[in-house]
Amino acid sequence: MHNAAFAARGLDWTYVALDVEPDRLEEAVRGLDALGFAGANVTAPHKQAVARILGSELPSVNTLVAGGAAYSTDTAILELVTNCHKPVILGDGGGAAAFRQALPEARVCSRRTTWPPDVSDADVVINATPVKDDVLVELRDDQTLIDLPYPRTATAEAAAANGATVFDGLDVLVAQGAKSFELWTGIPAPVAVMRRALGIPEAD
Questions:
Q1: Angle ∠(159,114,107) on CA atoms, nearest 5
Q2: Of 51, 52, 47, which is closest to residue 62 (Cα–Cα)?
Q3: Which side of the chain, N or C, has fewer Cβ within a 10 Å radius?
């Protein structure tokens, strides 16, 4: 997705995946500038740890920019949600932490607190768990699901079948990726190119 975006904008940049063991995480973060990286994404399970390493005020970090700046773009998908007055967040990891900060009024359900979750009064449900094969909640046609895992989960399939508005994990990935791209490059992200690179249709 990012390599397609770089090519579309005429940038001679390359996006690579790097596995980092938890006990080498701080070394990896500190070494990005020395290695000439323009930036990096951080994924589970490192988002909260990177925030601590950098002393960030954010509870969770998923985007780093050369020079030490840290951001969370996980919640960029919220810009596409038109009605979010009674949100419910499922989960308590790094992705959930980012949404908790963006939506301080949200009710949070996790296996450590309230489970199974009751989302009957929610207008937006954010599934920030890693669960893909089980239907965690049943949504109605007047509710919206933001589903962080990908590929599309059983929860997202069930919600779509019931007529709910669904932003699945790939929608979320493109939204946060576009924000990351813009932070690294300072230019608008080619969102349509990024969606095509993932094999998903352009947004309406």
A1: 70
A2: 47
A3: C
Give the rounded distance of the alpha carbon of 124 from its chain centre: 16
Sheet containing 39-41, strands listed edge to edge, beginning at the edge strand earlier in sequence: 39-41, 63-65, 69-71
Pairing relation of β-strands 39-41 and 63-65?
Answer: antiparallel
> Tell me: the pLDDT tens digits for 66-100?
998 999 999 999 999 988 999 999 998 888 999 99
Please give the distance of CA 100 from its chain centroid, rounded to a whole number. Answer: 13
Nearest alpha carbon to residue 92 among 111, 76, 74, 105: 111
Q: Could you tell me the two tokens for 113?
A: 């607190």
Q: Any long-range contacts for 103-110 (C-beta under 8 Å, 24+ apart)?
A: 103/75, 103/78
